Amino acid sequence: MSPALVSPARVGLDIGGTKIHGIAIGPDGAVLAEERAATTPGAEGVVKSAATVVASLRDALDDGEISSIGVGIPGIVDTRAGTVKHAVNLGLDGDAFPLAELLGARAGAVVTLENDTNAATLGAHAVEDVDDLVYLSLGTGLAAGLYLNGALRRGFHGAAGEVGHLPVDPEGPVCGCGQRGCLELVASGAALAAAWPTAAGHPAAALFAAATAGDPAAVTVRDRFADGVAAAVRALALAVDPERVVIGGGVATVGEPLREAIAAALVRQTEASPFLASLELASRLRVVSAAPVAAIGAALITPTKD
Ligand SMILES: [Zn+2]
User: Fold this and answer.
1) Best CA proximity match to 52, nearest among 11, 80, 17
2) How far, in Å, is the centroid of ligand 1 from the Cα of 175?
3) What distance in angstroms lies between residue 141's CA and the mean position of ligand 1's atoms?
4) In the CATH hierarchy, which top-level class contains the domain 121-287?
5) Which residues have C-beta within 8 Å of that of residue 174, sequence separation ≥ 6?
6) pLDDT per residue as tens digits for the range 243-278
7) Region 151-179: what's the mean pLDDT?
8) pLDDT in tens, 85-106
9) Rounded CA gap, 215 and 126, in Å?
10) Beta bridge partners of 285
């Protein structure tokens, strides 16, 4: 008789502009291995650096067996075709790039792609264990993933949850998307860094530390930022009324003080409206600061079948 069979691990890769975070999880969801590596931009660079992370994960596993590779990547992803477009931060700004095929050939396993926010949403679902949630990513930009009634909602054009481009200020500056006064220009990691520049370290951490210490300028910037995020939460709640709103992305490393600031902003915004107050939005908020939801979610991507 052969020894007890161990089901192969599923690999998840969170491919970002500067680094790739890879994780291998077992059939029970336990994390078996974790690796990080710098992203080399460009077509060949991205495939090669992703394959290197997969090889390191494979080496770290007892049996080296991998059943599937899921990839969360910024840009416009065609999950069925296994291609990504407009991943400008990765130097993949041309036509649909067949990453699934190229990485699959190099890594020797089936590869499925998903937009990075959607992948993180799957991870948030796994970590939070509710079947109805909105994942709001406060990264460089602002975008949400929708996991509703037990399924990811990508949208007819794959644009579901793009709340960062809700115009909120007709007098505001022109956004990269061409509209004026988008929410992302106030409520995103890039907006925060522009409003509270730091010579070194994480701007969000510096801002929240200064605000907590009572710096009035920091309190003003923090509250304006939190008001913008709260506006996104409110829009999402009014559109789909999710059981939970999970805040993630780079700014979420701030942790509990971020949740408190957004919750306080939601309470301020509901003061004049018994209707909004009755929705109890603040109590639905969670912040995932430690859990590597993007890579976990990537490992949980289910291949799309025709
Ligand atoms: Zn915009």
Assistant:
1) 11
2) 5
3) 10
4) alpha beta
5) 180
6) 999 999 999 999 999 999 999 999 999 999 999 999
7) 92
8) 988 889 887 789 999 999 999 9
9) 38
10) 245
How does pLDDT run across 107-132, given as a tens digit for each residue?
Answer: 999 999 999 999 999 999 999 989 99
How many angstroms does the Cα of residue 231 sit away from the middle of ligand 1?
Answer: 15
9-109 and 121-287 share one fold: yes
Q: Top-level CATH class of 9-109?
A: alpha beta
- Compute the distance from residue 161 Cα to the ligand 1 centre, in Å: 13
Q: How many angstroms separate the CA atoms of 227 and 233, rounded?
A: 10
CA of 51 to the centre of ligand 1 (A): 34
Nearest to 233 by CA among 154, 155, 134, 152: 134
- CA dist 53 and 139 (Å) reads 23
Whether the pLDDT of residue 63 is over 70: the answer is yes
> How many angstroms does the Cα of residue 42 sit away from the middle of ligand 1?
26
Give residue 178 CA to ligand 1 midpoint distance, Å: 6
Every domain of the chain and the residues it spans? 9-109, 121-287
Distance in Å, CA 299 to ligand 1 centroid: 30
Q: How far is the CA of 2 from the centre of ligand 1 (A)?
A: 58
Burial class (CB in 10 A: 0-12, 13-18, 19+), 151: exposed
